[in-house]
Amino acid sequence: MAFKSNTFSQSVTVNPAAHFKTLTKRQFPDVMPHQKEMLEEYAAQFEAKPDVALQLPTGSGKTLVGLLVADWRRIKYDDRAVYLCPTRQLVRQTVLQARNQYGIDVVDLSGSKNSFSPADRTAYMTGAKVAISTYSGLFNSNPFFENPDLIVIDDAHAAENYIAKMWSLEIEANSPLHTALAEYLRPYLDPQDYSRLTGDWMGAADATWVEKLPSPLVAEICEGFASIVDAHVDSDNPKLYYPWSLIRNHLHACHIYLASREILIRPLIPPASSHAPFENAKQRIYMSATLGAGGDLERLTGRKSIDRLPAPEGFQSSGVGRRFFVFPSLSLTGDETDTLRLDMQKRAGRSVILTPSTPQAEAHAARITNNFSGCDIFMKDGIEADKAPFVESDQAVAILANRYDGIDFPGDECRLLCLDGLPRAMNSQERFIMSKMGAAALYNERVQTRVLQAAGRCTRALQDRSTVFITGTELVDFLADSRQWKFFHPELQAELAFGVDQSTNVEPADILENFNMFMDNNSDWAHADQMIRTAVDTYQQAPFPAMEELSAIVKHEVIFQEALWNNDDESALASARTILGGLNHPDLRGYRALWHYLAGSAALRLSEDDGDGQSKAAQEQFEKAKKAAPSVSWLNTLARIVSAHEDGPEDDQRPETLKQVELLEKQFLALGTATNAKFEKRVAKIQKEILSPETFETAQVDLGKLLGFSSGNDESDAAPDPWWLGEKIGVVFEDHADGKESTVFGATKARQASSHPKWIKKNVPGTENMEIFPVLVTPCTQAKSGADPQLDNVRYWALNDYVLWVSRAVAVLRELKGTFPGEGDLVWRAEAEQKLEAESLTLNALLANLPMATSAMKIVA
């Protein structure tokens, strides 16, 4: 055969932009001006930095930038370069772009390493070609990429889902391991939490329930806990086996979260430095649409410091393409919204639906199957493998659960994007920190990035346009609430303002008519587009609060995690104290409380005796945690576990109110913050139904839920009337809404009322250790002498007084709803707690104010 001609290295250009001109098979004459500027700046200032983030907004050609840097360094330094994508579908897409558009010869090394061809292996190992793979191709316990020199991470904002997963044990509900662990943990859980963990939910709010086992408790039970996992996990189940093999001996550095659908075990921050292929690379490059100002990229990737190269001035401030936002729930009912969505899908031909969960995706698929004949349905697995069948179909809907990035539908591929639900908390750790600790500020940028990525699936270039159909209470609140807009770039603010205006006080036919004009791309739509363009200059973008503080401490957060992982508790405690010195912003008080807790846990691990200095330091940190965020109920749970002191009377009552406020917050979130329309409909229904004996109990249940109680009813034989349950106490009603003041209350009814607590404890999960108090609601003022003994433990509530109390309760709830700013606001929680107590709307206040029936009713023969 002839001698090979590529034995020696190619000549090296001065920078990656110049390298592009040497690629003879490229389809473009040169890189775009903004790409050239970034690539030249990279070579001049960032070439030797170990960690570099490149801001590459949607439509900026980030794939070309990343591939050019990788191919240039491959030639200049003989680097083994690997370019990582979130999914295999994106790997294939990137490989095709590299070869067919850019003239860069790459190899696809995704999937099982046993399937890699010898030629492709050799091309990467010798530095002859850049390898394209998935995140999981590098982040696994036995990767093919053992010692890469350069790692390019595409869509770095999505990295947490893939990097942290390497050290995350996710135990699904109803699995044998989940059942075994739930039973093992039962003695350490409140009965209600055990019921939630095992699936006995008492209401819709339980679907988002999350709890965390305090680290001091984990230290006590870790041996038994680990032995159970050991017994259930083996190499036949790699999804559990490999992450468990990495965290098995580091449980002290992990957190155990209990949620309604899973048990999650993971460290706070991925210990990426312990993964040699990632840690030992010469350079790691992170490509993202946003760089973030609060250190979120460092938290996602477990790096102490990442240098940032922003997009050229002005390029990152504008949007890409045009979005026409539609918010049907601002004017329409749920049924009208579903019908409108189907009508728009039929008109569009091809549409995409993104949802946070598989059940939601399946519900959409069923609705389309039943109402849209001849429509092809593509679920996540099918379209990730190949989207061509979808694009080639005239009538098709792609339904993707929990996939807000990575799959694009530009140009004519799709003109209608339906977003159903906010991708706020993507795992139990995020949900715990946001909702339980009230530290949502930590994730402001992360959530915003997810939403903007989702909304941009069909607008990937300047000429693209898409209607974005928004549903789901939280997502509508996030995008339609003008108070949030200042944190978005000006063009998006203008698009949202236009969308909200066009969706308010309209009928379905109005929205459909506007959509038809959009689809036709006629002069009417051109006029609307011009209105949006003109409005852009009237908006300015503001930074999220507290970003500077979060950015300043992130290095020490990573050091803390690394020290904990390596059993260096002294360094971990020192880092935690440094972090606490930098957390002063009021919006971070929940996060500050979390770090006091983490500092206390580290100090407790250093303690050798209950009374030594480290033990006292731990107690001091736990007390500071409670003071930093007194409205966080979870810290009371922590105090009960780590503190030997007995709670006083005030402490007995306060956790009840804190839990009530948290559930009240969930009710308000479900009813929406963008408008009070749903709230007003709910309270109007309660106030109407409370006046009728036929609907009295329904109103009582609804009011209990709205007040933040676990509220229910049961129509089975011998069941009581509605009940309201808190954390440790509850009330169960015996209602006589159809009674008369002249009626004499009999012994049989009294006996029923008195026995209701026993029924609750026997039939309602998680109540066996609660104190349940029966309450009689009646207009009756007299009771027979035979009823007297049965009423000893029954409280009395005159029907007229109850109805007046309901009106006052609704007024207080309306006031609280009016000031509600959104999830996890600790200032609002504190104010709500005080208001509920001052207005006697807590269970403890109710019980204290209601007289016993034996003293309130006249006993007659």
Low-confidence stretches are 644-650
Q: How far is the first residue's CA from the last residue's CA? A: 118 Å
CATH architectural group of the largest domain: 3-Layer(aba) Sandwich
Name the shape in a single word.
globular
Number of beta strands: 25
Strand order of the largest sheet: 3-4-2-5-10-1-11
Number of structural domains: 5
- At CATH level 3, the topology of the largest domain is Rossmann fold
Strand content: 5-15%
Q: What assembly state would you assign to the polypeptide chains in this entry?
A: single chain
**The CATH class of the largest domain:** Alpha Beta
Number of helices: 36
Main beta-sheet strand count, sense and barrel state: 7 strands, parallel
**Helical percent range?**
40-55%
Derived from helix and strand composition plus strand pairing, the structural class reads alpha/beta
InterPro entries: ATP-dep_Helicase_C, DEAD/DEAH_box_helicase_dom, Helicase_ATP-bd, P-loop_NTPase
Protein name: Helicase C-terminal domain-containing protein
GO molecular function, one term: hydrolase activity, acting on acid anhydrides, in phosphorus-containing anhydrides
Domain Helicase ATP-binding: 43-309
Can you tell me about this structure?
Helix content is 48%, strand content 13%. It is of the alpha/beta class. Strand 8 and strand 9 form a beta hairpin. The termini are far apart.
